[in-house]
Amino acid sequence: MPIIMASPKTGKEPYIHETAFIAPTAVIIGDVTIGEDSNVWFGTVLRGDWGTIKIGKNTSIQENVTIHLEQGSSVFIGDDVIIGHHAMIHGPTEIGNGCVIGIGANVLHNSKLGEGVQVGAGAVLLNKEFPSRCLVVGIPADIKKQLPETGKLAGERTSKDYVKNGKDFKAFFEKNPEVIKN
Fold it and tell me: Residue 21 phi/psi, 5° resolution?
């Protein structure tokens, strides 16, 4: 079963919407809010022991992602966001609705992403704001190009697939609790 616990520092406990899927090997500590139909996959760590982490609805936090923050700061992740495997999010930071964070990307202190930003795999963002609907790549990350101003945001195009997959996994583990060995 996942480790879901209050912060030893503040005593604040996570709030996880009843429709969210939390993988059995995820760790969620402290002042963390996870919205409706979001999913947190295997090996992920969300550590809100020093501040606040808020995750919107239909958002997918994939395998081995780490989300943490500086003391007294916040991480805000919007709705329909996809955070790829092995990404690091370290706040304070804000990730707008419909963003896609590529595999192994690092979104670090004082980064702010508008709606629909796509961050390339392995990119490193630090102390910079990015406007809505742009492609961000590199180390340090910079805007590669502006994306179309109309149509669905990148994360919106795939978030429903992850919501369905999360529901399937949640139902599987509820029907088959014996597969989880402690």
Answer: -105, 130
